[in-house]
Amino acid sequence: MHEPAIPSLTGADPEVARLVQAEARRQFEKIRLIASENYVSTAVLEATGSVLTNKYSEGYAGRRYYEGQQVIDPVEELAVARAKTLFGVDHANVQPYSGSPANLAVYLAFLNPGDTVMGMALPAGGHLTHGWSVSATGKWFRSVQYGVAKETGVVDLDQVRDLARAERPKVIFCGGTAIPRTIDFPAFAEIANEVGAVLAADIAHIAGLVAGGAHPSPVGHAQVITTTTHKTLRGPRGAMILTDAEHAKAIDKAVFPGLQGGPHNHTTAAIAVALGEASEPSFGLYAHAVVQNARALAAALLDRGFDLVSGGTDNHLILADLTGKGIGGKPAAKALDRAGIEANYNTVPFDPRKPFDPSGVRLGTAAITTRGLTEDHMPQLAEWIDRAVRAADDEQALDRIAAEVADLMAGYPMPGWA
Ligand SMILES: Cc1ncc(COP(=O)(O)O)c(C=O)c1O
Q: Which cofactor does it need (predicted)?
């Protein structure tokens, strides 16, 4: 049963309640390897579902356009203070509705339409909002994109430097959505400094690892740091922008009134709760366990002949090129889902296939680590993944794996399910 219980919803709208229960059960039974997902705590769920959703509060604490902010102001101040302490930054804006609007605020703060921005190309592991062609950021700005080296699968910093020197971007984004290796923030900062660009580090994927000391921090290197709050950081769906003192005002103005109206106060409260949790010593252990699990899963997959982009992982994320397994990423992801293992199909660098039917799958260990799985489980996970990919057309074989998966996961409690 969903936890907190949902008796009012069940009474008022059994149809929606049934779907919520079904999703909670699905999350309980599956091995969730989508690298951008996690399980939030029951405390975060409660804050998200609170009456704070009823309140409008355009503006910032002490400078609102609506009355009745006696409670909301301290809630936002708490979230801001916790973000500043946890990440060691001068300033935090906790209002962006999600990661994409947070990144858009960076454009609004530091660029005019048509100005040059540089980011990692989507097929190489960057995010849409780092200037990819189909995104507003690629349509309204002059975007130049860097990638990874073909031989290594990691960011080619020589290419980044050459491109920056030639194109003189006003903003450089580092970070991305399918990068299995450590981001070299000092190297990006050196390049950005040389060409006079603002360095924006998008740590959406790795924010929890940074907070927990399992990935180097961009603080002191990037003037602006954007992040979602719902991936490895294990908070609600939301985002934050962290800056040094010099860039704080421009970012605040860009978020409100530049892009958004009223902040989602229930989310702000839940972000504060998640940041409180992330400042506990146990979160550091969690962050390191996420990386250990990813390393162990990568090693077990390599043992089974999987081809991993960059040869492995330094963080929570693994990108497997399935070409050698004779199956595309999409049918593989569908087979895995039927086998109780949730992943997403993903482009790999230099992918000869189309983005909607690419060669790879992306796997992440943030959610399974929250459930309590350890390195010892990873050979078993790799065995299931291998079996499922080989038996992609055999529904009975996939169902047998799903039963084994559900059996294992039944022993690992999930916040949100009692
Ligand atoms: C690196 C990165 N930045 C930004 C985003 C956008 O976040 P959202 O989906 O919350 O808009 C994502 C989402 O996956 C991401 O991976």
A: pyridoxal 5'-phosphate
Nearest protein CA to atom 5 of ligand 1, as residue: 99
pLDDT tens across 234-274, in order?
999 999 999 999 999 999 999 999 999 999 999 999 999 99
Residue identifier of the C-alpha nearest atom 7 of ligand 1: 99
| Domain membership flag for residue 126 | yes
Q: What is the pTM of this model?
A: 0.98
Binding site for (6S)-5,6,7,8-tetrahydrofolate, by residue number, is 122, 126-128
Q: What is the DSSP string of 206-247?
A: THHHHHTTSS---BTTBSEEEEESSSTT---S-EEEEE-HHH
Q: Which of 227, 228, 243, 267 is catalytic?
A: 228
Q: Is the CB of 29 under 6 A from ligand 1?
A: no
Please give the residue range of the domain that contains residue 339: 289-409
* Domain final position from 228, 256, 278: 278
Q: How far apart are CA 88 and CA 84, in angstroms?
A: 5
